[in-house]
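Note to self: user wants both folds in one dump. Writing first protein now.
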Amino acid sequence: MSIESLRSQILNLVTEYHRQAFPAAEFIPGQTAVPVSGRVFDATEMQYLVDSALDFWLTAGRFAAEFERDFAEFMGTRYALLVNSGSSANLLALSALTSPKLGRRQLQPGHEVITAAAGFPTTVNPIVQNGLVPVFADVEIPAYNVDVSRLEEALSPQTKAIILAHTLGNPFDAAAVADFARQNGLWFIEDCCDAVGSTLGGQMVGAFGDLATVSFYPAHHITMGEGGAVLTNNPQLKTLVESFRDWGRDCWCAPGQDNTCGKRFRQQAGGLPAGYDHKYTYSHLGYNLKATDMQAAVGLAQLNKLPGFIAARRRNFGRLFDGLQDLQDVFILPRAAPDSKPAWFGFAPAVRPDAPCSRREVIEHLESRRIATRLLFGGNLIRQPAYRNVNYRPVGHLPNTDFVMNNVFWLGVYPGLTDDMLDYMLDTLHSLVKLQSATVGK
């Protein structure tokens, strides 16, 4: 039997294996778990994964190259650079701006970077890890994105960059932030890890900043298991991100390739002897944060399903939003930003301070009925133990960020949720409010 025939037979068996190993399960309210997120896949992802494994090309290869090209096209950017996680993508995007090759625009220790305190730690951590100072601006309710009106107040002579996340897929006003950055000579990084497919003014998020990042963790819009990407339209920034991703090397040859510049042994750098092998010349203190072809293969299969995944997230969000209209005296419901079309990551109600039940009571009630909940990530990051000794500058007292910390939670809208699950979530919230209201009224 030929290699091609064997490969075809193996992939056909994978389809049969998937059918038997992952059958559809019946939803039983109160017994079946209702997750906030999860992988959604079929036999195609398993076929792509096995196909890549049969190549036994263990680093980035043909699947990675195809994914980078197709994902960049989807996101409307010139380049997409595959990395091993969304957190690594943030680290690389910020680290690239510390390169001496940027001249006077190089970020240096002590420079300030504007961000938001309400969010996920790895949006902020690269600032600290690079010896920079995070400047924390407050957020708006109920969008839970940065209050753009506070950016001017956040600015100082030491401010050199902005990094902000589109919270739970709801776009912040990236156009206004981009204008502010240009006017003040600041770098601008968009963290789109929760927002792949969200648009603002008809334009895909990720195309407003100098750099953007995404995550392919199983909770996100598509998954590779682990994985992420850095997006940019700037050729110089692309080269710098690749250098920091690939050990800090000066060479830009793809894995398995040599001498694409034609000058491998004809250059001189630093104190190295003339003609030192360019493949072993390092221009940055870099990392090894590459992804594998097997990860990329899964991502490529997922990418074909991304439009459907986004549509399902929007539909599920709408079902929860419509179903909770009669409880707005208890919950502040999340709302899309003006002129935006979010690819929602989650549905985040806030429990009003005068509600008959506390947030803790709400989430304990939901969890006891096997409905998973999450808080809005780190709440107010400056209250977290990890930031106790970090040098930062807050813009005011951050009252809305504290409100997020104390009152907000979120529920899933991912494509694996069924109508029965969503109805069960709504019924559970209504029954809790009815019970608490009756108790308070006694």
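First done. Writing the second protein, which came from a different request thread.
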Amino acid sequence: MRNFAVSLRNKNRIKLMYVAAVLLFTAAAALGIFCGSVKLSFSEVMSTLFGADGGTSGRIVRYVRLPRTLASLIAGAALAVSGAVIQSVFSNRLASPGIIGVNAGAGLAVTLCCFFGIYGTWQMSALAFAGALASAVLVCTGAKKWGASKGTVILLGVAMNSVLNAASDVLIALKPELSVMSGDFKIGDFSGVTSQKVIPAALICTVAFVLLMLMTNELELLKLGDECAAGLGLRVNFYRYVFLTLAAVLAGCAVSLAGLLSFVGLVVPNAVRGLGVTKSTHVIPLCALFGGGFVTLSDTAARCLFAPYEIPVGIIMAFVGAPIFVYILVRRKGGVSYDRA
């Protein structure tokens, strides 16, 4: 009877979290569309959304706010889910796309695109994914070859991160005009996003998300450790690379939209799991909703707090994300153990 009561409480808590996540996601999307440095009335925005031309106000909504809001929702969801998957694969709460070099790999690929004058949307997205995947595979392969522990994998990722960022800096030194682009790119910014960038990223992220939801059972087994998962019949190496590939796809899409956004893939999964959600079936969709809402609210704040001036969204996220991460570490007394419940 007691176990039944505990199970019922857990189910109710998860339902409440879904309600809160959907409300946050919806509210963030609405604020992103209705708020900005230019004040527009409710009727102007609504008429544009339902097909009216709307003149100048219509163009602001259609070509600036709507693509930017969609991009921030997609990038936030993608990075949060990518972080959750990477943490599960490495069984380490400190793993994230930014820490193990996935973001830096995508960033180097985008810098290479600009260095060689490649500005096409699909080429840049494809190369960002390739860079993210190559970084993840190198870290995973190196850890396996050298017999590194899962904690040491994080250190390998930090080293990879430094090398890839240094390579990007070399390209910028060789072609100084790239420094104009690199500033906003390294901090994270949605100011240059267009619908031509958003649509391919949305399609790719949707496919990756669906595939992850279809393989949540395998992800749960992988969290148990290599020996235990193999004993239960899981092809450990195959699924590890599959999950890292999907995580790299998500991170690469996010980087191609906004640059190197910090803390999303680290803080959001930790916050979701810190609220008692451990099953991948719930962690992945909740991370997508909370991550998208968090990034979109941060971007709206970046546009509105100092209007008519705008600051990069990455600065807002660093100010918000860093204290949250410190709180998570203090609450867990500095531990990095992983919940397998």
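Dump finished. Worth passing along: The chain is about 75% helix and 0% strand.
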